[in-house]
Amino acid sequence: MNYFQEGFVWLNDPLNWTNPGGLFDRLQEHLLISLWAVLLGCAIGWPLGIWLGHRGRGGGAVLTFANLTLAIPTLALLTILPLTPLGFGQPPVVVALAVFAVPPLLANAYTGLRQIDPETREAARGMGLSGGQLLRRVELPLSVPYLAAGLRTAAVQVVATAALAAFVNGGGLGEIISAGFGIGMSNGGGGQIVAGGIVVALLALLVEAVLAGVQRLVTPAALRTDRHRRPTAAAPAG
Amino acid sequence: MSFLSGVPVPAWPLAAPGELAAPADDGPGNPWFSWRYVHDNAGEILSALQFHAGLTARAVIIALIVALPLAVVSYWWRPLTGPILALSGVLYTIPSLALLALVAPAVGTTSDTSVLIALVLYALLVLTRNSLAGLTQVPAEVRDAAAGMGYGRLGRLWRIELPLALPGILTGLRLATVSTVALVTVGSLIGKGGLGEMILGGFRNNFYKAEIMTGTLLCVGLALVLDLALAGVGRLLTPWTRERSS
Hints:
The complex is a heterodimer.
Chain A: H1 2-12, H2 14-18, H3 23-55, H4 59-71, H5 74-80, H6 90-114, H7 118-126, H8 131-161, H9 174-183, H10 189-218
Helix pairs in contact in A: 1-10, 3-6, 3-8, 4-6, 6-8, 7-8, 8-10, 9-10
Chain B: H1 35-40, H2 42-76, H3 81-93, H4 96-107, H5 113-136, H6 140-148, H7 153-184, H8 195-204, H9 209-237, H10 239-245
Helix pairs in contact in B: 2-5, 2-7, 2-9, 3-5, 4-5, 5-7, 6-7, 7-9, 8-9
């Protein structure tokens, strides 16, 4: 418990928040990296998943891809990408995180379009809707809850994983933790390590709670169920 | 760019020893894969692999021992299902690095116990959720029939429900194993990352690509091998699912 007290003492010092490289700076970096990674993931995962779901094929490939990325350690991509032409700094971190954001977005978009009752689809066809109209007016509105569920999983995962960027000096809140290890556990670094852990954990829980609310808001009342929708590719921050 | 070229390439004349390697365009002197590296460091690589596999096995086995009773308890007393899944869901949301940062100072960084604790907590949710899903999808008629044949609660669980829940449990076991293999690398934070040590070590050691890539490939390979092995075990244990699907 000693370290926890030190952690709270550390969090109570305003300078630790406002210093250059303090919590506010790191939080801003963290959120910016996460935002770009999620946007990039959406730009790739959603169109692909919607297209595959609309066409109704490629389900096996989606699942294989999602399971395959589960086996790749985040740390590996974070260390490999800076050595490619992407260069050092934040771009490789954003790309690495986006790679892990794509599977939940893709899998949920695909599932969202595939779970629509075939009779609904046939009725729309019977009313004379073309493929594009079917997609825009019927399939997309009905799959919004799944898209939101995918966004939530992907965003939480990205925010959680962004902490690992500190391993390669990529910025973000993980830097607080690694700086604590740099100071040394016995020299007062323990408190900073615990404080960093608390902040990162709270941020992930906060994002989860906010996006769960968003998911509930965009889900039409008729489609709401109490059971949690966990997508196929929910992975802990590895 | 000699991506995965199997042949050790002779050192580039410009990359003199001691010179800081330019990361993006230093191709020939710093190949992505080199058999010479693997050959020269076979001992270290093997011990890292062994540590990695051992830690994964311990974490998954402990998690299974904890998760199965939890799943059974929440299967028997439905009101407990919500709290148990919610609690493990919260644990699952907490980033691995944060969890490790919270556990490590309290437990100590000299042993791998803190990494083990974090890994077990993560594997717990997947295993509990899937085991519970497996148990709840046992058809009601089957349960009724078993009760009618005179099975008690425990006997029914052991002889009827757990075997029928095996596919769900095995799916959870495979997911948990694969993600645990990837997660062990985060243990590098306290120097207990197994193959993650190689990945991070290569990055810190002047961006030694061969070391990074060897660690990555072994990590992914270990996950795939364990996944296939568990899939094989699953096929052997549940022959009825094969007949149904064919």
